[in-house]
Structure formats: C-alpha cells, structure tokens
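The following block was generated as part of the benchmark described in Methods. Ligand: adenosine-5'-triphosphate.
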Amino acid sequence: MSADRVIHPETFPASLCGMITVAPEMQALFELVRRAARSDATVLVRGESGTGKELVAAAIHEQSPRASHPFRAVNCATFTPELLASELFGHVRGAFTGAFADRRGLLATADGGTLFLDEVAELPLELQARLLRVLQVRRFTPVGGTEELEVDVRIVSATNAALRKLVAQGRFREDLMYRIRVVVLYLPRLVERTGDLEALTWHFIDEFNQRGPRRIHAIDQAAWAAMRAYPWPGNVRELRNNIEAASVLGEGPVLRLEELAPELRSPGTEELAELSSAGSSGGGLPRTTLEEERYRELLEAFHREGGHRGRMAERLGISRATLYRRLKRHGLI
Ligand SMILES: Nc1ncnc2c1ncn2[C@@H]1O[C@H](COP(=O)(O)OP(=O)(O)OP(=O)(O)O)[C@@H](O)[C@H]1O
Ligand SMILES: [Mg+2]
C-alpha cells in the first residue's frame, strides 16, 4: 500500500533558498531560477495560491548580483489605489490628508535591489502607467511631487491569473504585460510535483518537531491515504498549515487522520481509518526501511505504556540501555 512508501537517503530533497523538492519538475524550475537570477531580466512568476511564488521571487533576488541590496515585497491586492501609490512611489509632505512628512516608497528603498509585486494583476490602471515608466526609463515621481527620481530596481511580479485574459478585458495594459513577462516561470501545483507531498510533509514535520513539544515520527495509514487523495487547492501553504495544526493540537508520535483539517476527512477516508486501526499496529509511514519491524514494535510499546521507559523495556524484553539506544536511533527521543 502506498502508505508504506519510505524516504530513502537518495531521495534527499534538493533545496533552494528555503524551498525544497524531490520532483524533477521542480528541480528543472530551480535551475531556471538560478539562470534567471544571473540576468537583470524582469520575471513573472505564475502559479496557484500557496505554490511558493514569493519564495521564488526571493530566491531570484538572493541568487542575483543584487543580493547585497534590499528585497522588498508588496501585495497589490491589499491596498487601496491611493495607499498603493504611496507605498510604491512614496509621497511628499502635504500630498494628501495625513501626509505630514515626505515618505520614501518601496521603489526608493529597494534601490539597487529587487521589488516583488505580488498579485500584480490587481494593480490599478493608473498605477500601471506609472510602473510602465519605471520599467521603460527607470524613473518615477512620488505622489504629490514634481521631481522625477531615478531608480535601479529589478521587478519580479507574480500572479495566479492569466494577464492575457485581463488585457482582453481591458483591465491590464498590454504594453505593461509585455514588459513584466519577459521571463515567465511556472510553478506547478503541489499534486503535480512527483514525490513532493511526502518530502514536504516530512520537511514540515521536522520543522514543527523542532519547535516542540510534540514530536511526530510516523503518519497513520488513514491520514496518509487522505493526504494522498486530497487535491490540495491551497498547495504547499495548505499542507504546511495542516502539519502545523496537527503539531499544535494533536498528541503522540503518530499523526492521525482526525488531526487533519475536516476537508481532508471525506467519508471514504473515515472507512480507511477503521480498516487501518483494525489491522495495523501503529506507525503507518516509517521514515526508514531499516529495522521497520522494530520501529513498529517500539511505537506500539510507546503507545501501550504511555511512554514509560521501564515498562516499555519490560514489554519488549530488552534492557533499558538498549531501549534508550533504539528510541534514540529512531528519533523518538
Ligand atoms: N518548495 C517549498 N519548500 C518549502 N516550503 C515551501 C515551498 N513552497 C512553498 N513553501 C511554503 O509555503 C508557504 C507558501 O509559500 P508562498 O507564500 O511563497 O506562496 P505564494 O505562491 O506566494 O502564495 P499566495 O499565492 O497565497 O501568495 C510558505 O509558508 C512557504 O514557506
Ligand atoms: Mg504570495
């Protein structure tokens, strides 16, 4: 059964600036990110919600010759047009009610570095014209100002909407679209990344195990079946949230189906849960094939004796020193 799949040493993930993957599709993307980073080209990152667009933008910056300069990010969907203008271009004193002093915008503070425009499709038309000028002649005027300022900023944008469609609807300038989509990087959905559900699950389990107090060391078969069946519309972020919630709210070394978000627990997976609790002795997805049997015994003893070492050793018929060594080897302490 798929839940018995294990992580072999040779599947150790590739990593790039906080992103990890074992999927060939993503490793190819990492290579494109490295290549794009070497240039100053304007990059558009395409991908669904939670696929890691911001991490890719940050990676482009960190791998680029601009790395020692600032990386600034702004989400174009979270501001009113007026506030976004001020956020991007800055403003001069008295430009509008409440503008008590000059304020530098993100373009100015990102000078020499990279500016990441998240959800660029939401950029209001009026600001699109001003951004176009930044890309064309590297100049902009702060809100309420008269003087044009020069700026040297690389623009990386992201969207999960097709800009072409918005251009057809008159909501996005065609000339700007061509300026910001010089290099386009497509981030696959989580379910399209071969092997990444498993690799990322353990990656996040490791992360939250370190934060403690819970330490998860195996995934219940029913939980794993549910995770594999689920389409993950919120992609990597949704997976991370599920692991974090389980780590905070659940108990014991085995991640269980009932600890996952309700949307993962469809009727089909409840049946699987019953099946697996009837037939299995605990750990569903061991981390290594080495001594898998012992690992399961250990987990079972752990459960039955509530983690009491003396009683666990007795149940397993081994000395406390051996128990200690095994617990340690399997990462249970
Ligand atoms: N390959 C990866 N490895 C590790 N963590 C990842 C990976 N991809 C994404 N994440 C994590 O998933 C979460 C979402 O990533 P990010 O914010 O970059 O996605 P996004 O595409 O910008 O999402 P949104 O469309 O919602 O803005 C973050 O917590 C990030 O750390
Ligand atoms: Mg984002």
